[in-house]
């Protein structure tokens, strides 16, 4: 079964929103995919229960998975995973994570792994970063980038880092975190495509009520109206896109 990795040019660029939309987008083409957040920092306590913020948003689009099956590690401190883990004396066991992903691979057509923050986010205090793990996983990667001013530099740098590690890049999705000047967004997309030669999968519009949008099938569909399915079909056909 196919595993995709959703990374971003930064934290808070919209990886969770895109992961949730991606699950719905693939379902509209008949592919049942499971979202999964291997390492979640910034857990919140509600009614005495620890909640993983990103999987809580996934549940707006996936009614089949219980919260405990949507993540592997849940850490309280809202910071880099290496620091949040050190704060709680937690050591990540990557075979534990891989086993949870493998279980999902057997039950679904695809698994959508969401990273934490961007590429050079330390997972371990010795400096082992998200990109090092992604290099080991070697699965098709979707890069989520801001649509507005400042994105060209961040996106090209992220692509350069992925290419240097030979991490397969399925494509880039530009997310409107604010209302942007569309002429600038259009040129941002054009320049990133020119500088990176990486396929642009599509965009996500700014929606003030984005969580309500994610909870509504018709509204979700409007968000991925310009997404290119063939990019994903190719990745689904790639036998090596698995961590089994
Ligand atoms: N298209 C959008 N329109 C409006 N708000 C958005 C949009 N995309 C993301 N947001 C908001 O921006 C914030 C960050 O989005 P999100 O949580 O998806 O980022 P992230 O990259 O997953 O962050 P993290 O690194 O913590 O996982 C959230 O409050 C989210 O609701
Ligand atoms: C807490 C935050 N929302 C994410 N879960 C983790 C972001 C780590 C960013 C590390 C860094 O780039 O400085
Ligand atoms: Mg997220």
From TrEMBL:
The protein's matches in HAMAP family, at most eight in alphabetical order, are given as: BioD (MF_00336)
Query: Would I find Glycoprotein among this entry's keywords?
Result: no
Pathway, per UniProt? Cofactor biosynthesis; biotin biosynthesis; biotin from 7,8-diaminononanoate: step 1/2
Which positions bind ATP? 12-17, 54, 114-117, 175-176
InterPro entries (alphabetical): DTB_synth_BioD (IPR004472), P-loop_NTPase (IPR027417)
Q: Which residues form a coiled coil?
A: none
Q: What is its main location?
A: cytoplasm
| Pfam families attached to this UniProt entry | AAA_26 (PF13500)
UniProt subunit comment: Homodimer.
Active site residues per record: 37
Top-level EC class as recorded in UniProt = ligase
- Name of the protein in question: ATP-dependent dethiobiotin synthetase BioD
Q: Which family does it belong to?
A: Belongs to the dethiobiotin synthetase family.
The alphabetized UniProt keywords are:
ATP-binding, Biotin biosynthesis, Cytoplasm, Ligase, Magnesium, Metal-binding, Nucleotide-binding
Name a single GO biological process.
biotin biosynthetic process
Residues reported to bind Mg(2+)? 16, 54, 114
Can you tell me which residues bind substrate?
41
């Amino acid at each position: 079964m196919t595993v995709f990795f959703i990374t971003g040019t930064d934290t808070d660029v919209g990886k969770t929103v895109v992961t949730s939309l991606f699950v719905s987008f693939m379902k509209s083409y008949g592919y049942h995919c499971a979202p999964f957040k291997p390492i979640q920092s910034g857990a919140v306590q509600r009614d005495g229960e620890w909640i993983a913020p990103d999987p809580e948003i996934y549940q707006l689009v996936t009614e089949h998975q219980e919260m405990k099956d949507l993540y592997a590690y849940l850490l309280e401190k809202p910071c880099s995973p290496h620091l949040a883990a050190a704060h709680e004396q937690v050591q990540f066991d990557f075979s534990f994570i891989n086993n949870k992903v493998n279980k999902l691979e057997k039950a679904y057509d695809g698994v959508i792994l969401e990273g934490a923050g961007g590429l050079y986010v330390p997972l371990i205090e010795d400096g082992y970063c998200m990109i090092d793990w992604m290099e080991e996983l070697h699965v098709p990667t979707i890069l989520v980038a801001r649509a507005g001013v400042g994105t060209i530099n961040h996106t090209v740098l992220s692509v350069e880092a992925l290419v240097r590690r030979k991490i397969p890049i399925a494509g880039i999705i530009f997310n409107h975190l604010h209302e942007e000047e569309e002429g600038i967004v259009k040129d941002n997309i054009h320049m990133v495509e020119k500088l990176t030669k990486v396929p642009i999968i599509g965009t996500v519009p700014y929606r003030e009520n984005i969580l309500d949008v994610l909870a509504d099938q018709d509204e979700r569909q409007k968000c991925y109206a310009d997404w290119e399915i063939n990019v994903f079909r190719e990745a689904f056909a790639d036998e090596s896109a698995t961590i089994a």
